[in-house]
Protein backbone atom coordinates (compact mmCIF):
# COMPACT_ATOMS: atom_id res chain seq x y z
CA UNK A 1 0.00 0.00 0.00
CA UNK A 2 1.42 3.34 -0.96
CA UNK A 3 1.58 6.18 1.50
CA UNK A 4 -1.22 8.64 0.96
CA UNK A 5 -2.77 11.28 3.22
CA UNK A 6 -5.58 8.98 4.36
CA UNK A 7 -3.20 6.17 5.24
CA UNK A 8 -0.87 8.53 7.07
CA UNK A 9 -3.76 9.96 9.08
CA UNK A 10 -5.12 6.53 9.96
CA UNK A 11 -1.68 5.25 10.95
CA UNK A 12 -1.40 8.25 13.26
CA UNK A 13 -4.85 7.65 14.77
CA UNK A 14 -4.75 3.85 15.02
CA UNK A 15 -1.04 3.39 15.67
CA UNK A 16 -0.22 -0.26 16.36
CA UNK A 17 -3.84 -1.23 15.56
CA UNK A 18 -3.59 0.03 11.96
CA UNK A 19 -3.37 -3.41 10.31
CA UNK A 20 -6.21 -4.87 12.40
CA UNK A 21 -8.43 -1.83 11.80
CA UNK A 22 -7.73 -1.97 8.05
CA UNK A 23 -8.75 -5.64 8.10
CA UNK A 24 -12.01 -4.48 9.70
CA UNK A 25 -12.40 -1.85 6.97
CA UNK A 26 -11.93 -4.46 4.24
CA UNK A 27 -14.36 -6.88 5.90
CA UNK A 28 -17.11 -4.27 5.77
CA UNK A 29 -16.05 -2.79 2.41
CA UNK A 30 -16.27 -6.19 0.72
CA UNK A 31 -19.95 -6.51 1.71
CA UNK A 32 -20.96 -3.22 0.07
CA UNK A 33 -22.44 -2.79 -3.40
CA UNK A 34 -20.08 -1.53 -6.09
CA UNK A 35 -21.54 1.99 -6.17
CA UNK A 36 -21.05 2.39 -2.42
CA UNK A 37 -17.50 1.06 -2.73
CA UNK A 38 -16.76 3.63 -5.42
CA UNK A 39 -18.03 6.50 -3.27
CA UNK A 40 -15.92 5.30 -0.37
CA UNK A 41 -12.88 4.97 -2.64
CA UNK A 42 -13.38 8.61 -3.58
CA UNK A 43 -13.58 9.60 0.09
CA UNK A 44 -10.87 9.75 2.67
CA UNK A 45 -9.85 8.70 6.13
CA UNK A 46 -13.21 9.61 7.69
CA UNK A 47 -15.05 7.07 5.54
CA UNK A 48 -12.53 4.37 6.38
CA UNK A 49 -12.79 5.17 10.10
CA UNK A 50 -16.57 4.78 9.82
CA UNK A 51 -16.19 1.39 8.13
CA UNK A 52 -13.81 0.25 10.87
CA UNK A 53 -16.28 1.48 13.50
CA UNK A 54 -18.90 -0.83 12.01
CA UNK A 55 -16.83 -3.77 13.32
CA UNK A 56 -16.41 -2.22 16.77
CA UNK A 57 -18.18 -4.02 19.65
CA UNK A 58 -19.73 -0.67 20.63
CA UNK A 59 -21.42 -0.46 17.22
CA UNK A 60 -22.45 -4.11 17.08
CA UNK A 61 -23.88 -4.36 20.60
CA UNK A 62 -26.89 -2.08 21.27
CA UNK A 63 -26.36 -2.56 25.01
CA UNK A 64 -22.77 -1.30 24.90
CA UNK A 65 -22.41 2.02 26.76
CA UNK A 66 -20.79 3.64 23.71
CA UNK A 67 -23.26 2.22 21.16
CA UNK A 68 -25.22 5.44 20.64
CA UNK A 69 -22.10 7.56 20.13
CA UNK A 70 -20.45 5.14 17.69
CA UNK A 71 -23.69 4.58 15.80
CA UNK A 72 -24.16 8.34 15.50
CA UNK A 73 -20.60 8.75 14.18
CA UNK A 74 -21.13 6.06 11.53
CA UNK A 75 -24.55 7.42 10.57
CA UNK A 76 -23.34 11.01 10.23
CA UNK A 77 -20.35 10.02 8.13
CA UNK A 78 -22.39 7.97 5.71
CA UNK A 79 -25.19 10.52 5.55
CA UNK A 80 -22.59 13.07 4.46
CA UNK A 81 -21.30 10.66 1.81
CA UNK A 82 -24.57 9.17 0.57
CA UNK A 83 -27.18 11.73 1.61
CA UNK A 84 -30.67 10.32 1.56
CA UNK A 85 -30.04 7.97 -1.37
CA UNK A 86 -31.65 4.73 -0.12
CA UNK A 87 -30.06 2.69 -2.90
CA UNK A 88 -26.60 3.63 -1.69
CA UNK A 89 -27.15 3.52 2.04
CA UNK A 90 -25.12 1.17 4.13
How much of the sequence is in beta strands?
A: under 5%
Please give the alpha-carbon distance between the first and last residues: 25 Å
Largest sheet: none
Please trace the helix and strand order, writing H or E for each element. HHHHHH
Which value, in Å, is the CA radius of gyration? 13 Å
Estimate the mean pLDDT confidence.
Answer: 88
Unreliable residue runs: none
Structural class category: mainly alpha
Form type: globular
Helix percent reads 55-70%
Number of β-strand runs: 0
Number of helices: 6
Secondary structure layout plus pairing:
Layout (H helix, E strand, L loop, with lengths): L4 H10 L3 H12 L4 H8 L3 H9 L3 H4 L6 H16 L8
Describe the structure.
- By secondary structure, this protein is an all-alpha fold.
- 66% of the residues lie in helices and 0% in strands.
- The protein is built from 6 helices and no strands.
- The protein has helices at residues 5-14, 18-29, 34-41, 45-53, 57-60, 67-82.
- The longest helix has 16 residues, at 67-82.
- It is globular, with a radius of gyration of 13 Å.
- 12% of the residues are buried.
- The mean pLDDT is 88.
